[in-house]
């Protein structure tokens, strides 16, 4: 009886290990396989240097102490602290970003294809939200005040708007060393080369002149 029980547990453990196996998460948009061993080779993420050569500078970044320049059309500025700024983040699966907002400044609808984001308001008042996936497309939103926290699930479209009359600041933690960002309007109307007007007019139910005007803005 004991032997049968142990065998059953072993089989369950083996089945669980097989069921939970998966490929490593992507750390960039794509990583095309190559068969030519003489070709330049890239990895999913970054190459690692000899750990003995690491210094404190590999694990630090001073850029978040400075306010971002919000003198732009959106009235916001994102200062990232990803593996591009902090080499020591490589393989660790985390990053940060500071977001500065002028009064009524906006971080427009966007997604992070590789990360969940948790945002903390340091100063000001923000209206934030995300939209669930099809077919519901449900908006989940609220107004945040200093010290409040809000989570944007990985891959979902979300936004932040400063609804106050003073500057606002937030810090975001992200669950990837390179979370990526896709700003919806820029991606759809500002792709290079441009998406066919026929595609966009049908998708958005807009006149071709309206689509052309939107494309010209991005």
Automatic annotation (TrEMBL):
Keywords: Apoplast, Disulfide bond, Glycoprotein, Manganese, Metal-binding, Secreted, Signal
Signal peptide extent: 1-21
Annotated binding of Mn(2+), by residue: 110, 112, 117, 158
Organism: Vitis rotundifolia
Name of protein: Germin-like protein
GO CC annotations, alphabetized: apoplast
Residues engaged in binding oxalate: 112, 117
Disulphide bond pairs: 31-48
Coiled-coil regions, chain positions: none
Function: May play a role in plant defense. Probably has no oxalate oxidase activity even if the active site is conserved.
Source organism superkingdom: Eukaryota
GO molecular function: manganese ion binding
CDD domains: cupin_OxOx (cd02241)
Lineage, top ranks: Eukaryota, Viridiplantae, Streptophyta, Embryophyta, Tracheophyta
Gene3D superfamilies: Jelly Rolls (2.60.120.10)
Domain Cupin type-1: 62-212
Recorded family membership: Belongs to the germin family.
Pfam families: Cupin_1
Cellular compartments annotated: Secreted, Extracellular space, Apoplast
